[in-house]
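quick one before i forget lol
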Amino acid sequence: MTNKKRLLIVDDEPDLRTLLTHVLAAAGYEVAEASDGEEAIDKLKFGGFNIVLLDIQMPNVNGIQVLKYIQEHSPDTKAIMLTGYADLKHAMEAKEFGAKDFIGKPYKIEDILSTVERVLQET
C-alpha cells in the first residue's frame, strides 16, 4: 500500500491535463486524468482519490454535476474547482456543493501546488 496522495485531474483541455499531471506527479502525487465529467465519475466509482482538480465548464457532464456526485458518493474526496470563468456565481455554487477551493484560469503552477498541499492538510 502506497502513502502517496491520489489526485484526479478533470479537464477537457488535454494540454492542461498533461501539464498538471506532470507537475503534480513530479511533486510526488499519484495522478490520474479524466477528459470530462462522465469519465471522472467512472473513475470516482472505484474511489481512493484524496483530491479532484475539477474544471467547471465541460461538455456533457459539467464540474458542478461531478461535485454533486463526489458529495453524495465519495464525501472523503476533496474538490478544488478550476475554471476559466472565475465569477462569483460559480464560486458560490461550487462552495455550496462542498468545493474546498476555487482557482481561476490562467493560474500559476505554484498556486496549484500550494492549494493542493493546503487542502490535503485540512481535516
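fyi DSSP finds five helices and five strands in the chain.
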